[in-house]
Design a protein that fits this description.
Layout lengths: L13 H13 L11 H8 L3 H13 L3 E2 L9 E2 L5 H12 L5 H22 L2 H17 L4 H19 L2 H21 L3 H23 L3 H16 L5 H13 L7
Antiparallel strand pairs: 1-2
Helix pairs in contact: 1-3, 4-8, 5-7, 5-8, 5-9, 5-10, 5-11, 6-7, 6-9, 7-8, 7-9, 9-10, 10-11
């Protein structure tokens, strides 16, 4: 069944989607607010109930609202979530729309920035949290690479949180998860895993020391050097050259 359109060719349910997206973006709709009931939306936008319900389904898939058909209070506006972006990146990665080299190059930029910011802004409590995380990573080595990797991701999430820049935090988290999923499915084998876990632990200790010493430049350089060392062999020579330039940009060195 083809969705109905208005005279401009726009699908009718898009009116509801635009109304909510614009309201959230402008602050007119805030988390915890309620949308009008289905009947009121039908009257306000001059469209059928089926189009209203389709618009609400789209908004639910975007994690912008939660709707219960028999709730007389109307759909609930939710806090803005990164889940739609995470799903989009995961789909692009699994479908071949994003290559490993693109993800790693972006992560080199994001992680270097997160480390630099954390070195400047970290608190003593955040250093303690990082130390506890590294202890958990060591304990996870005997439990397999999947569990170790979750602790590894948490280390970088803690650094991004300490850096205090939410844009760096959100995009960095999404890209790191996409890389982990891609690597797990395509390039890791049993012989790689123990060596990679040990390499990761050594790197995290060096990063921790730089952040503890408030040496942002060193922490930034370590991020790029480590990512190059991890992933250079899995990308094309042209992409490897770009990654090497990113390392040199912050004063690091790469081995041939």
């Amino acid at each position: 069944m083809t969705a109905r359109r208005d005279t401009s060719g726009q699908r009718l349910f898009q009116r509801i989607v635009d109304y909510v997206q614009d309201g959230v973006a402008s602050g007119a709709l805030r988390p915890g607010d309620r949308l009008p009931s289905e009947r009121e939306l039908v009257e306000r936008f001059g469209i059928g109930r089926a189009s209203v319900r389709e618009g609400l389904r789209v908004l639910e898939n975007m994690d912008l609202i939660r709707s219960s058909p028999r709730d007389p209070r109307g759909p609930l506006v939710l806090p803005v979530s990164v889940e739609p972006m995470r799903r989009s990146v995961a789909l692009l990665t699994s479908g071949g729309g994003m290559e490993l080299a693109e993800l790693v190059q972006f992560r080199m930029i994001a992680d270097a920035s997160a480390n630099l910011l954390a070195a400047s802004r970290r608190t003593d409590d955040q250093l303690v949290a990082l130390e506890r995380n590294m202890a958990r990573m060591r304990a996870c080595m005997n439990r397999g690479y999947a569990e170790f990797s979750r602790a590894d991701l948490e280390f970088h999430e803690l650094i991004a949180e300490a850096g205090g820049n939410r844009v760096v935090q959100v995009y960095g988290d999404v890209i790191r998860e996409a890389i982990l999923d891609l690597i797990t499915r395509t390039v890791l084998d049993a012989d790689d895993q123990t060596a990679l876990m040990l390499q990761s632990l050594r790197h995290h200790r060096d990063v921790f020391t730089a952040i503890s010493d408030r040496d942002g430049l060193a922490a930034s350089r370590l991020a790029r050097q480590s990512l190059y060392a991890y992933y250079a062999e899995y990308v094309s020579p042209a992409d490897r050259a770009i990654m090497a330039d990113l390392v040199r940009e912050c004063g690091g060195t790469v081995s041939d």
